[in-house]
Amino acid sequence: MRKSRIKEVKEKLKREKIFILFLFLGFFLIAFVCITLGNMFYKQAEDFSGLVDAAKDPVVLTAIWISISAAICSTLIAFFFGVPLAYFLARKDFFGKSIIESIVDVPLVVPHIVAGIALYGVFMRSGVIGAPFEQVGIAFTDAFPGIVIAMLFVSLPFLVDAAREGFKEVDPRLENVARSLGASHWRTFIKITFPLAFSSIFSGAILCWARGISEFAAVMIIASFPRSASILIGDRFTSYGLSGLPGIAGSRPISVLLISICLVIFVLLRMLGKRRRR
User: Fold this and answer.
1) I need a surface site. Which of 44, 74, 133, 206 has the fewest CB within 10 A?
2) Domains in the chain, start-ordered, CATH in brackets?
3) What is the mean pLDDT of each run of 10 residues along the chain (278 residues)?
C-alpha cells in the first residue's frame, strides 16, 4: 500500500514537473516585488509614528483623494469611449485596422514625460483644445481636469485592449441567434455580448484605474497643482527625503499609506470581479 502510494506521488510529480518548474521561475518575479515593497514597509514599521503623521496630514489625505478620484474619472471616460471602440475592433476587419490598434497602444511606448509635453501643447490655455475650453471657464493646466486627461492618456490602452480580447472570446454565433430571434443589435450587445465579456472589461478597468493612480511624469507637466499623491511624494522626497522631519511626513510614509489604500481597493475589486464571474 505504501509503495503504491509512493509510486502515485512520483507519477503525479512527473506529470506536474513543468508546473513546478514554471512556479519556480515565476517565483523570481514574485520575490522581486515582495522584497522591494516589503523592505519599504519594514523600514516604515520602525518609524510607525511617521506613518501616523502622514495619515493625519490633511495635505496628504487630499493628495491621495485627488489621485483616486481623478483615476476614477479617467477610467469612466476610458470605459464610455473605449468599450465601443473595443467592440468595433473585435468584430470588424477593415483596411487600416492595425493602424488604429497601434494608435491605441501608442501611450504604452511613449515616454510619459513626452506624453505630458504633448498633452500640455494641446490642452494649455492657448492650445487647440485648451483655448476653446478656456472660453467657457474650464482649465486643464494646473487643474483637476488636467490630472484626469494625463491619467486617461497613459491608461486607456489597458481597458481597450482587455475589452477587445474579451469581445473576441464571445462567439458571434450567439449574437446571430439573438438577432434571428428578433433582438436588435443594441439589445443583443447589452443582454448577450457585454455580460459575457464583462470579466475582461472589468479587469481592464481595474488596470486602467491602477495605471492612472501611479502616473507621475505626465501629470507633473500638465497639472502639478492641485498636487496628486505622486506629485506630493516627489516633492516630499526632493525636500525632506525618505523619512521627513518632525511634523512633516517624508516620501516613504506617504508611499506606504498610498500603497496600502490602493492595495485594499485593488483586492476588493478583484474579489468583486471573481464573485461576478461565478
Assistant:
1) 133
2) 50-277 (1.10.3720.10)
3) 60 70 87 90 84 88 94 96 95 90 92 94 92 90 94 96 94 87 88 91 93 93 91 90 80 91 86 69
